[in-house]
Amino acid sequence: MKTNVRANVILQHFMSSELWRAYWHRAAVVVTGSSARGTGDEFSDTDILALVPSESYKALYDSHRHAAQCGLIAVMNPDAFQYREFPLILVPGLKGHYKVHTFDEVECLISRYEDVTMWIHRDSLILHDPTGRYHEIQKSASSYPDSVWRDRVRTHYLAAWMGASAAGNPLRRRDRAAVVLTLADCFTQVLRLCCLLEGLPFPYEKWLYREALRTNVGRALEPLLREFLEELLRPEIRRIPPESYERPKHRNVDLEDYPLFRIWRRIKGVLDSRLPT
What we know:
CATH architecture of the largest domain: 2-Layer Sandwich
Strand content: 5-15%
CATH topology of the largest domain: Beta Polymerase, domain 2
Largest sheet: 5 strands, mixed
Structural class: alpha+beta
Number of strands: 5
Radius of gyration: 23 Å
Order of helices and strands: HEHEHEEHHEHHHHHHH
Strand order of the largest sheet: 3-4-2-1-5
Number of helices: 12
Distance between the termini: 43 Å
Helix content: 40-55%
CATH class of the largest domain: Alpha Beta
Low-confidence stretches: none
Shape: elongated
């Protein structure tokens, strides 16, 4: 997809819309997601965010609701109006849509280093930002302070470890539903750690596996991650005693009979070697 052609279509839509005439000089328009990153495919659409000062939001919301009710604009999710949510507005001539946020709400999330929000805005493509306010948001989303980064790594490492630990008795019981739930959470935390260990915010789950494998840690773990996922997706919990035990006198040595547990231990070993000191 050609970004410059898409940008022209997007900007022309906003600049020619009566809905935006009074707010355009203080608004920002950005492209996010796979379109901004150049990773889109035939299933991708163009995700657009428009940001406005908080004092403009209500009037914009009300005008868009009225326009949707009158059939002047097309909306992907009209039920959003029932919950006072800004819907996804379709852009004619483009396989894409936009939603409106306030600068203030995004700045608040970024100030708390909310990971997914940082990921969304870190690599977005800025099309319009006359006040420069969005540039500052993007700059703030680019990295974590060292203390915050260490805390994030510690938090998600502990969550991965706890997910794996919680699977112990379900493995023994061959309780597949409980094993899937606990180890799927463990797997998610490991993928987040792949990003965090390189100082990168992680995305929402739809893109998490792909993003993790783009990191150095993810590439090092890729064979184990694939093995872990394949084992987790089996219709049965396998128990295959190893030729030798890693911790023969440990109280949980029997868990080493389960390939899922052994794979986790190898993943943990790689993560342990990458943890900050």
